[in-house]
Amino acid sequence: VIGEMKPKGTDPRILSLAAEVAKSPEQNVPVILLKLKEIINNTPLGSSELKKIKQDIYCYDLIRYCLLVLSQDCSRIQGGWTTISQLTQILSHCCVGLEPGEDAEEFYNELLPSAAENFLVLGRRLQTCFINAAKGEEKDELLHFFQIVADSLFWLLGGHVQLIQNVLQSDHFLHLLQTDNIEIGSTVMTMLQNMLQINRGGLLRIKGKTLHSILDEVVFKLLSTPSPVIRHTATKLLLLMAEFHQEILILLRQSVYYKGLRSLLYQQELGTEFNQELRQLTGLISPYKEVEEQKLHQAACLIQAYWKGFQTRKRLKKLPSAVITLQRRFRYKRAKILLKQNKQKEEENRKLQLQLQKQRAMRLSRELRLNMLEIVHPGQVEKHNREIEEKSALIIQKHWRGYRERKIFHQQRPSLTEYKAATLKFLAKCRKKKQLCALWQGLPELTDTRRVELKRQVDEYVRRHPASQITDTTSKELHAQAQEHLQHYFMGRALEERAQQHREALMAQISTNIEQLMKAPSLKEAEGQEPELFLSRSRPVAAKAKLAHLTTLKHIQAPWWKKLGEETGDDIAVPKDELNVELETLFIGGTKPP
Fold first, then answer.
1. Beta strands in 166-237 (DSSP E)
2. Is 500 within 8 Å of 430 (Cβ atoms)?
3. E strand or H helix at 93
């Protein structure tokens, strides 16, 4: 066959390559065909020489050899998917720009559709291997080979537009489009978009069922795929179909299968990066009334967007002051934490210094003691130790007594404060009453006019009320009696005021004593000077209490035979010399014993 179709002026590289393919075994043919890539790449693109090389490759059936290799199992080919992907590139480049001449019908009707179908089959195989692959590196490698095959197919379709209809009607392409993998789905969707941009009328030439399947898959990927890249590509595809094919637009508007598509697209508009394309698609498939409502909705959204932008810019202007406030508070808190840490460190250092001082003092005292023991005579050591012990005991007692007295004082401070406040309040009340009850200072001095007026009033009263005739002697006696009664009244009034003040002072003292006794601990729990709180200022009361106490002691200390015949209420005679003792008084609130 090669000898019959040998053209004139064949490139020697193609001729030698064809001879090598014919002589070599089947398993070495794919590797030999890879040399075509070097020949094509070394030839200038678009030159007549490249066209002549492609014609020679076609004439020597090297393209058919490539198709045969691509139809074989991958595991039987040397180099695996790497060799196959490079052969797809060689095949697509050889078929694009090729002028078959006399065999044009066979080339266009058989070879090119077979090449496109082989590419789709390879894509299906790569898709299956990609899904079954376990390692990430293997998946990346298979995805790279799939990209090469897809680019080779698109390069072939770009050179031969009539093949787009064959690809769209192929079941293999539909299976590739229906994949759930994001990477492969994105590649296939992009290739479909590029095919429709190249040949916009090719979509209407395919059968109705296939068209519905492709349209359903694109709508499904738009509404259910989480990948924004695939959704964006699906949106552009639907826009492309709806804009240039009125039948598809009517189908999207009126078909029962796409009844809720408008509402779903409206939901998809929120929070997407391709809102403009979605709004265009929604506007295309919506009736006029809904378009107007959508325009109003978009206008409202635009107004809201401007208002939100204004509010955001307003907040951004205030942001520096907020940041300054936040920084100031942060620095204050950090300074506070550092200050606290420094205080803790200082406290720890202080405690450490005190401990070291105590240790030094202890060592120094021990050294001094040892030195004194060396100096003191052996016979005086015991005496010296006794003196040191006595001094130490005195120091301990002094500190203990000071601690105890301070503790007692702190315990009695509230009661002393209350007593002092009550005393001050009572003295203030007494001073106020003394000022109110001051002696009568006499009437203010009368003027001559007032004296004449009073004399006139007296004369008028005497004229109207004439008195009985009283002698001068009787008048003088009555006057003397009145003066005497008045003197007795003023003297008794002063005594009564002093008695009232004395009673109030005694009542205040009794109330204070009762309050002190209520707050004082019981005799069993009393310690130190607390029993002194039970002493009384009243000498009669103290004497009676002393008498009762001595009586009880006498009765308790008496022998049993003296208690025979005595009753509980009998009084016991107590000698008077035992009562001549100094009665204790209570020191409260700074007052002194009488």
1. none
2. no
3. helix 81-95
Close Cβ partners of 422 (under 8 Å, ≥ 6 residues apart) = 508, 511, 512
33, 65 contact by CB (below 8 A):
yes
Phi-psi region of 9 (alpha: psi -120 to 50; beta: other; left: phi over 0): left
**Token pair 């009572």: residue:** 426
Residue owning tokens 């406040």: 421
Instruction: Give 399's pLDDT tier (boundaries 50, 70, 90).
Output: very high
Computed over every residue of the chain, the mean pLDDT equals: 76
What are the two backbone dihedrals, phi and then psi, of residue 232, each rounded to the nearest 5 degrees?
-65, -45
> b vs e for 132-147, b when ≥16 Cβ sit within 10 Å of the residue's Cβ?
eeeeeeebebbbebbe
Q: Please, are residues 455 and 463 in contact by the beta-carbon 8 Å criterion?
A: no
Confirm if 175 and 124 have CB atoms less than 8 A apart: yes
CB 93 within 8 A of CB 155: yes
Is the CA virtual torsion 511, 516, 521, 526 positive or negative?
Answer: negative
Half-sphere exposure of 440 (CA within 13 A, CB side): 9
* Close Cβ partners of 282 (under 8 Å, ≥ 6 residues apart): 262, 265, 266, 269, 294
**What is the spatial distance between Cα 501 and Cα 492, in angstroms, rounded to a whole number?**
14
Give the pLDDT band (50/70/90) at residue 339: very high
What distance in Å separates the CA atoms of residue 81 and residue 67, rounded to the nearest whole number?
Answer: 15
Question: 197-228 pLDDT, tens per residue?
Answer: 777 666 656 666 777 777 767 777 776 777 77
Percentage above 70 pLDDT, the chain: 77
Q: Which of 11-25, 58-72, 82-96, 453-467 has the highest mean pLDDT?
A: 453-467
Cα 573–565–555 angle (5° rounding)? 40
| Amino acid at the residue 284 | L
**Residue entry with tokens 């709180």:** 533
The whole-number pLDDT of residue 498 equals: 87
